[in-house]
Amino acid sequence: MHLPDGFLDAKTTAVTWALGAGGVAFAARHASAAMPRERVPLVGLAAAFVFAAQMINFPVAGGTSGHLLGGVLVAALLGPGAAVIVLTAVLTLQCLLFADGGVTALGANVVNMALVGTLGGWAVFRAFSAIVPGRAGRLAGVAVGSWTSVVLSATTCAGQLAGSGTVRWGIAFPAMAGIHAVIGLGEAAIAAMVWTAIARARPELVGSAADSESRRSVAPLAALGLAVALALALFAAPFACPWPDGLEKVAEILGFESRASGALPVSPFPDYLFPGISSERLATAAAGALGTIVLFGVGVFLAWRLGARTSRSR
Amino acid sequence: MIRPDTMARLGCPECPPPRWPPAPKALAALALVITLAAWREPPPTFLAGTALVLVGAAARARLSWRFFAVRLLVLSPLIFSLATLSLTAPGGWRWGVLLAGKSLLCLTTALLYAGTTPFSSTLALLRRLRMPSLLITTLALAYRYSFVLTEEARRMEVARKARCFTPAKRREAAWRATLLGRLFLRSMDRSGRVYAAMQARGWR
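Structure tokens for the assembled complex are given below, as produced in the milestone run.
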């Protein structure tokens, strides 16, 4: 996912460099203020660890192999500010020493992987740690957060390519997000296994700090989750694949498609289209956004009711 | 991802480009990469001329052809994949070929710079550009210890084989994850010693 030089236009390059430099400067200030001086070498060693870890290949099905990317794993172990610095250092080293990732695209690569991917994945990790207490919640958080970080990075990368006019969004998004949704599964499995190995050897490294932080309010994380879900519904849903899904295809092959009774008489958004909007893409985006909000409300209500019942039974 | 052992200096350190001061060299390389990246449709003569200049500089530096071949072979598939995706853009195949050409020239420029400049010079340059000190320290330590940790991981794997501990195929991934977990813990332990050494040398 390391963007090379030449694929981003001048405005996207300038914007991503500004965002990347601002984000890294903020993370450096935050990490420097929050971190005792004796932990500074640990950040450097963690960057070296990520670098070395990427040399260790894990067998994947069909004779292929993959390696750890490590952003969310480092964020879960050292905190988000340090993780941004670690990933930025790794990307800069890869760019300046190995030309892996372009010099002009370094800003975009930092935004995609060190900022959006790492912080987005870390937010998911924190949400899981807060909702599901104990080691299981943190393990699930590392796995789902790692998957999310890979897909988020790929999605922003596709957005930059489309914004530069290099590739159409309708091609870039499904290609990048689709491939990286599969790659993300490998990253989730590897990060979860490494986290488990560390937790077994040194439980104190992954326990108390995360537990005390998980007691904080989950409202900001819930708001972030809703924002990400809404963004996906608004920008990704209109580009959903128009091909029939599995059941529709089977119905088509077996010839019982015509017996389908169609939408419910009271269906508010037949075929995922918001009534009253002429543009099909806008109608799909509006229906997706409203559906997301309704489901979020149902989820919050269920969590509130179940949470109240659990508290009473204690 | 290129392994560190493949980036061993293959050129001649006394030959012209490594002797050139790093700041003007970095500026020239950056200017060329920015020009290539920002110029939407440069004429083919400009691209051909740039390629000739780069080949000339690589020859003057006596960089081995393998130095470029290995890296271009590893890094160009991504360039060609993105160029293939860009065939769907309005410019069609000409646009895809142009993008691939520009990107390969930028990659060659970056390789030429990396192959003829010690990383310590690049770090000094970044420090003069007022990059955050935490990031500079992290970069320096990452550069110093990435090779140490890569070697350590290799030694751990050799030690496992020497003890005749051969995990079943299905346990291979879990074993490698354990290796990485141990490597992270060793890095943590090492960071304490590194901090003491840095303090002893007057690090502030």
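The mean pLDDT of chain A is 78. The beta strands of chain A are 58-59, 65-66. Further analysis is deferred to the final report.
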